[in-house]
Amino acid sequence: MRETGDVDLSLGDDLRAFVDASPSPGHAAAEIARRLTAGGFRELAETDLWELSPGAAVFTVRGASVVAVRVGTEPTAEAGLRIIGAHTDSPTFKVRPRWDVRQAGYRLVGVEPYGGGLWHTWLDRDLTVAGRLALRGGTTTLVTLPGAPLRLPSLAIHLDRSVREGLTLDPQRHLQPVWGADLGTEPGLLEALSTAAGVSAGDVVGHDLVLADTQPAARAGADGSWIAAPRLDDLACCHSGLLALLGVSAETRHTQVLVCNDHEEVGSGSASGARGSFLEDVIGRLAGPEPQAFARTIAASKLVSADMAHAVHPTRSERHEPSHQPVLGGGPVLKLNANQAYATDAVSGGWFTERCEAAGVPVQHFVTRADLPCGSTIGPLTATRLGLSTVDVGAPQLAMHSVRELASAEDVPLMVQTFRSCLGTTG
Ligand SMILES: [Zn+2]
């Protein structure tokens, strides 16, 4: 499978830079917007009147979600859309409105778990706070506390020998990060964030703030071809989809779309999540006012739901279905589930397989064991809401939902080539 010596790690290094620039979903959306703008895409507000001509390259942002569009040469009702979908959020902890907790002589930051993380991996890590501040007058600004001021310290084994039988963490009592001694006179979190953002603390009227690991993404593995990083699920697919959209050179009949949604890890039920109206609203604008244009556009379209996949584990391979064991560096993973936890069917899966063949990229397959439940993605949600023909795919990774995940830099160019084939094809 592997041709050693000619492994191109440059796109993997670019993924590491993308992850490092995206400590929160808001930062990820801003980084996607920055790269789109640098690539010639023009930002439109949802409040603008959109008048798009063939070849127009535009994007719009709702919360921490982004939809980017390159308009095709034919009406969407005739040629449809080719859509890559991914998500900007990852399991983390969200800072509470009344965050200031003082106990045992310490100051803590009150937080609430977000999504289904492997929370024990957050212990003893160098953490910070990142996210969005809402300012008086309706504007927002992104902010990250400098350094690594927060920690979730383990309890010494001498104080709890039962940990040998398994660690039990109560999020309310045990997963509240500490950030200093309680001296009674220190500036608060909002003051520190305001200083970091260069705004007045009195102007901060709201916040979407999460904890983030500060250790930069790194090359890993014997030959440095793996990537150890936070938030690979699903920033890696946002990144591959973005590079594919930016890299498609030829005009196509159909319209190319990238949608990166927030709130996948908590069920996607929000205005900017995949169960909200964001993608549908943009498609409505692309289809235009003709009565059947929207339905015809949907019927002519394909959605590639791109979310990370489970590579077989080195010491726990029995948790995989024996005939379906994707490997790191083996290329995109086509995900199927008999009970529709994934949206792939014969037609969408076959279409994707053809696109991989056209790109010269191998395809791996994933199903869960029959005795294990299956995860889900934005694919079935979007397919259910819009009726889009959808295929669920992803890049292989280990340690999904750990604070430090593991993927292969070799898969990054394979995913980009595949997504380029999906966006660029006329098939
Ligand atoms: Zn995911």
General description of the model:
With 427 residues, this protein is of the alpha/beta class. The protein folds into 2 domains: 276 residues, Aminopeptidase (3-Layer(aba) Sandwich); 122 residues, Aminopeptidase i, Domain 2. Helix content is 26%, strand content 26%. The strands form 4 sheets. It has a 9-stranded mixed sheet with strand order 1-2-3-13-4-14-18-16-17, sandwiched between helices. A 5-stranded mixed sheet has the order 11-12-20-19-15, covered by helices on one side. Strands 5-6-9 form a 3-stranded antiparallel sheet, with no helix packed on it. α9 links the parallel β16 and β17. It is globular. The model has no long low-confidence stretch (mean pLDDT 93). Bound molecules: zinc ion. The site of zinc ion (ZN) has 6 residues, from α6. The site of zinc ion has 6 residues, from α6.
